[in-house]
What we know:
- By secondary structure, the protein is an all-beta fold.
- The chain is built from no helices and 14 strands.
- The protein has strands spanning 18-22, 38-47, 53-63, 71-78, 83-88, 96-99, 104-106, 111-120, 130-134, 136-137, 140-141, 143-147, 153-154, 169-170.
- The strands form three sheets. Strands 3, 6, 7, 9, 12, 13 and 14 form a seven-stranded antiparallel beta sheet that branches.
Amino acid sequence: xxxxxxxxxxxxxxxxxxxxxxxxxxxxxxxxxxxxxxxxxxxxxxxxxxxxxxxxxxxxxxxxxxxxxxxxxxxxxxxxxxxxxxxxxxxxxxxxxxxxxxxxxxxxxxxxxxxxxxxxxxxxxxxxxxxxxxxxxxxxxxxxxxxxxxxxxxxxxxxxxxxxxxxxxxxxxxxxxxxxxxxxxxxxxxxxxxxx
Length: 196
């Protein structure tokens, strides 16, 4: 016997959208060990015209060849409103930094400019070590957001944006220069018993 239920009506609903894109070009500043607030990634979140959206969390993956201990104080900074949104003291055991409970509201058709910065505390090696921050894991953009009208979570579109800063930051190996002072004694043979 077939099972029959009440007739249902379906509705086609267009929900909000959110797009992430690179915001300007991140250049390699070859930071020195000890340098702070080094920009790793600059990006922009843009809401579509259907509804405002709220960004709940953003996660960044450590990219580059530097060890997780070579950088600290990974900060998410709101460029649009000139304020810090939080700082992770270090990359976690999965080489991630997450900023949760953000509550960033982006109005319909508006954009929010953000950047990720860190402090370089190590990374001097015989070969150049690099660091970057990636907000796209494979095909997943690591931004959780939902629409403010319909309340549905939104899949963030990244288009051609790779998720990383345009250039890795290459940690400067530094240099040591040795020179002889003009007050140093003359070079050459020193005879036994000399008072030099």
